[in-house]
Amino acid sequence: MTRTRTQRDGDRDRDELTATQAALAAEHAAVYGYGVVGGRIGAGRRAEAQGAYDAHRARRDALRRTVRDLGGAPQAAAAAYELPFPVPDAPAAARLAAELEDRVAAVYADLVRAAGGAHRKEAAAALREAAVRAVRWRGSGVAFPGLVERAAAPTPSGAAGPDSDAL
Fold first, then answer.
1. Of 90, 114, 106, 145, which is closest to residue 27 (Cα–Cα)?
2. Which of 5, 83, 93, 144 is positioned for an S-S bond with 41, CB 3.0–4.6 A?
């Protein structure tokens, strides 16, 4: 079957909306996660955690508007999220912050692929910002930010997926 230009455009629009909703979900999770980070991080890095929290809130709010502009209803935040590991102290809080940034970068990499024009430029900027924050929290970088998860082993059956409330 030959697809018409309208069908291709519709598929692209649907893909962009889906990727934007995924980025919004990741930002909701990051805002929640930084609430935990802020409560456990040492005083020396508290301003850094606050800045990241504020940046994720701003991105979340912008993504809500973008979802509406694309004709969708913005996904609401979950009441709570499952942390990927216990966060009893400042070193664990820094590891959580790096993990949050890696996960956010991954969904923005998908959005860069799905979006076009100004939305693509914004997604690329968000990917870059998340990658830089991850390096600051971790102390080292990765070759291809946003693609780290793809290099890892496949997710076992029954593990948290993109629609779960896991961070």
1. 106
2. 93
pLDDT value of residue 6: 55
Instruction: Tell me how far CA of residue 118 lies from CA of 90, 105, 138, 149, in angstroms.
Output: 37, 18, 30, 26
- C-alpha dist (Å) from residue 150 to 44, 84, 102, 146, 159: 33, 17, 11, 9, 15
- ∠ CA 62-128-66, rounded to 5°: 20
How far CA 121 is from CA of 41, 88, 90, 105, 113, in Å, comes to 32, 37, 34, 14, 11
The answer to whether the Cα torsion of 155, 99, 54, 133 is positive or negative is negative
pLDDT of residue 164: 47
Where is 142: in which H helix or E strand?
none
Tell me which amino acid residue 58 is.
A
- Structure confidence by residue, pLDDT tens digits, 125-135: 999 999 999 99
CA distance 14 to 72: 10
